[in-house]
């Protein structure tokens, strides 16, 4: 399996940034992992807080739990600020995933063209000026 194929699969299926780390692009990989993990934590914490707020609100009302009561409280929770944090976090996660897959697909122009270290690459030979043609000889 080619290194770029492996990197795309790692970034797409495992975690954004894992493919970059496997290609040796450590800074990019760890930045993508950090931002994705931070956004994931934000989404989980915000969703948990919103769910707990819904449960607390239902308990305080002392109504029997019906689908209508649950729906009303969930709608109130969605309009809260936590829903905007959840949306922003999900957008960051999606953006990191897209960037990670696209970045893994294309070789780094500053490197050896995406080739594995030690593999033969293009060789630029500097022939120089032929002897006897240089004006100061």
What does this entry look like structurally?
- Helix content is 66%, strand content 0%.
- It is mainly alpha-helical and 137 residues long.
- The protein has one domain (3-105).
- The protein is rod-shaped and about 95 Å long.
- Residues 112-124 have low confidence and may be disordered.
List keywords for this structure.
single chain; 137 residues
Main sheet overview:
none
Distance between the termini: 53 Å
- For the residues shown, what is the average pLDDT? 79
Order of helices and strands: HHHHH
* Helix percentage: 55-70%
- Low-confidence regions: 112-124
Residues in β-strands, percent: under 5%
Domain count: the total is 1
Number of helices: 5
Annotation, overall tally of beta strands: 0
Computed structural class = mainly alpha
* Rg, alpha carbons: 27 Å
